[in-house]
Amino acid sequence: MAGHQGQVYLVTGGCGFLGRHLVKMLAERQEGISEIRVFDVQLDRELERWSTDAVRVTLIQGDITELDNVRDAARGVDLIIHTAALIDVWGRNSTSKIWAVNYQGTCNVFEACKELGIEYLLYTSSMEVVGPNMQREHFIRGDEETQYNVQNEEPYAQSKAKAERMVLSANGTKLAGGKTLVTCALRPTGIYGEGNGVMEKLYRQLLKFGRRRLRLAGKEVEHGRVYVGNVAWMHLLAARALQKWPKVLGGQVYFCYDDSPFMSYEDFDMEFLGPAGFRMVGQKPPLPFFLLYMLALLSELLQWILQPLMNFTPTLNRYTLSIVTTAFTVQTDKAARHFGYQPLVPWAQSRARTAAWIRGLDKASSKMQ
Predict the structure, then answer these.
(1) Where are the beta strands (DSSP E) in 27-85?
(2) Does residue 103 have an active-site annotation?
(3) CATH code where residue 76 lies
(4) Structural contact between residues 151 and 133, judged by C-beta atoms closer than 8 angstroms
(5) What does the pLDDT look like over 140-158, one tens digit per residue?
(6) Exactly one of 103, 156, 265, 319 is catalytic; which is it?
(7) Overall number of domains in the chain
(8) Could you point out which of 14, 185, 273, 281 has its C-alpha 20 to 30 Å from the C-alpha of 62?
């Protein structure tokens, strides 16, 4: 195994939601690492506190879209976990910026591996490289081999899909110094957990509506969600296994999964928001899909009209509506078979941790008032 004492890992996007959970877990649990380099455009100095006598956490500020920045951060690294991405399904950022971060950034990471002879690259992909599609065709209990009508129509899904294809096809590339690149990709479904910026934004929006949430999808529209701690754990195990069994993992893609229940997006979120006094309005969507679609279209039109004046980014658009109203659930054991993955954090604990974090937001909000 290549995993000699004193390896150096580089985690791109290491100050993000998944990245910080992963860095903390690597610092606490991964034997044989002497340094974890955290590369991000915005640094959080708090992560330096996770350094121990055995593992040093080093923060490196840089832009994933700049090859020189990536190359400098990657010098002397044994393995790269590339989580850096611009997750945007609301149109907050320009199409060119989304492509620059998600695709060109990944190309830069690959280029650094080639030039510097870095053998191992683990890529954080997304379920959205598969779906849901805009035709609202359900993906129910699917796995990595399930045939689906993939239609990447939005910049985020398109850029992640092209980046994933590039990473997987790069497996086996000859590197400087004569080594061979080994790559694989992990596809999380909707990640939840403490520190999730999307859920925090939803929490703050619902406060303005008196802690009430309007139902958009029926209870039967089930989604697979996965706890951030389990996604981080799968990354840790895959990084280890990529080096131990390169012929098994090389060029492979894995959905991230755990024992979180399949529920509609809204009902799932209420598992954490409910204990904090939030409530769902109605057992069924109050409007037929056609009217919801027209509202989404209207929101997009308003966003386009106001673009020169202000950054108006409504959460409801045609893409987010299709995500919420299309079932997407994953049932697979490929990661278990290939590298022994089992969820680290059970559902009851995942739910309790996330609900406690929401209550913490409540306490912080009440102090500010």
Answers:
(1) 33-40, 56-61, 79-82
(2) no
(3) 3.40.50.720
(4) yes
(5) 999 999 999 998 889 999 9
(6) 156
(7) 1
(8) 185
